[in-house]
Amino acid sequence: MPSHHQPTYTYILAGGGMAGLSLAFYLNQSSVPFDSILIIDQAEKNTRDKTWCYWSDQPETFDAVVEHSWNQLWFHSFDNRSDKFSILPFSYRKIQSDSWYAYIQKELKQNPKIQFIQTKVLGFSYEGRYTQVRTEAGDFTATEKIFDSISAFPCELANPQHLKQHFVGLTIEANFPIFDPAAAHLFDFRIAHTPACEFMYVLPTSDRIALFEHTYFSGQLKEKQHYLDQIKAYLFGAYGLSEDDYLVLEEESGIIPMTLSEAEPQNLHTKVIQIGTSGGFVKSTTGYSFLRTQRKLKELVANLQNQHWDAPVNDTKPFKKWMDRVFLQVLVDQKIKGNKVFESLFQKNRPQLILRFLEEQTTMWEDLKLMTSVPTLPFMQAAFKIALADLPFPKK
């Protein structure tokens, strides 16, 4: 039994970011029994520190806090070909983190069984059949489970073989109306002058305000000033905006791992369960995580509710995982520029099919159709390299 002096909770959520708060939200809405839930984070989440985007063809849980949505997307190729697609019945939706934090915390704080504490997590340990979170504010015991969304995902920032999506974004307000808020620019590869997969991502929310993110899918990070210089050059080249023509409202940056999780598979027998980025919830080939995380956590809570203890926490079909591995290997090898792959996909397939593919909602036959629309040689070479690496060669 835990010490009488040690605070005890049914569930402890180590990390109060998007994954942790989402899980608390779904637990609070469910019939999963709990006496108390503790959410631990170093700081209260109340700032606009992130932008989350997702696409869907149906209503989703947090649509109430969507800042803006688009039914049309631009795709710009390196050779200056520009295509604007309707993605109906899908819409592409944007959420600002401060609005989401306020919305979800308002509901959670109405339940006295859910408590928050601001402190640093130091680690996890076991005491008999119970688990503990060690923090700078003391130790806390979970009688059921700890959900960990703060542990590092296995991705080495300095290792060029470990792909990352890395970006810096500026939200600007122009001095005059110049943007079209009806269409987002998902990929602009007109700036892709390096072997890495490099593009600009543009989300206009009014005729004067837009978010510009200079993004790489690559293993090597850049100095912050590099991204900022690229954004400034893009604003001038694409829109004719000099620095006197706009005001920078906000800045954001991020590094998202694009490697497949090397962690052991988890099920609901596990006492410390990794979720969010820590649990490999991010789509490795795109960096998208918001809607994917919501779906995985809803499933997790449903399995808790139905006592399906053998259910996997992060279930991905083997063929989908293999396809991700091959694509990531293509980006690592750089035998073909990353923009060429995306250009082939978007020029030869309906955008709705691509969006379903990126959300792993396609059939195997649809996957094979998409595979035949990309340059085959670099993908065959990458698949062969992976097959060779997986062979059980005897150790010397």
Task: Describe this entry's structure for a reader.
With 396 residues, the chain is of the alpha/beta class. The chain has helices at residues 18-29, 97-108, 224-239, 290-305, 318-333, 338-348, 351-358, 364-371, 376-390; strands spanning 8-14, 37-41, 51-56, 66-70, 72-76, 82-86, 91-96, 114-118, 121-127, 130-135, 138-148, 164-174, 183-188, 197-204, 209-218, 246-257, 272-274. It has three domains: 8-49 and 96-154 and 263-305, FAD/NAD(P)-binding domain; 164-257, Alpha-Beta Plaits, CATH 3.30.70; 318-390. Helices cover 29% and strands 30% of the residues. Strands 1, 2, 8, 9, 10, 11 and 17 form a seven-stranded mixed sheet that branches. It has a seven-stranded mixed sheet with strand order 6-5-13-14-15-12-16. 35% of the residues are buried. This is Lycopene cyclase family protein.
Write the layout of secondary structure elements.
Blueprint: E1 8-14, H1 18-29, E2 37-41, E3 51-56, E4 66-70, E5 72-76, E6 82-86, E7 91-96, H2 97-108, E8 114-118, E9 121-127, E10 130-135, E11 138-148, E12 164-174, E13 183-188, E14 197-204, E15 209-218, H3 224-239, E16 246-257, E17 272-274, H4 290-305, H5 318-333, H6 338-348, H7 351-358, H8 364-371, H9 376-390
Parallel strand pairs: 1-2, 1-11, 2-8, 5-13, 11-17
Antiparallel strand pairs: 3-7, 4-7, 5-6, 9-10, 10-11, 12-15, 12-16, 13-14, 14-15
Helix pairs in contact: 1-2, 1-4, 5-9
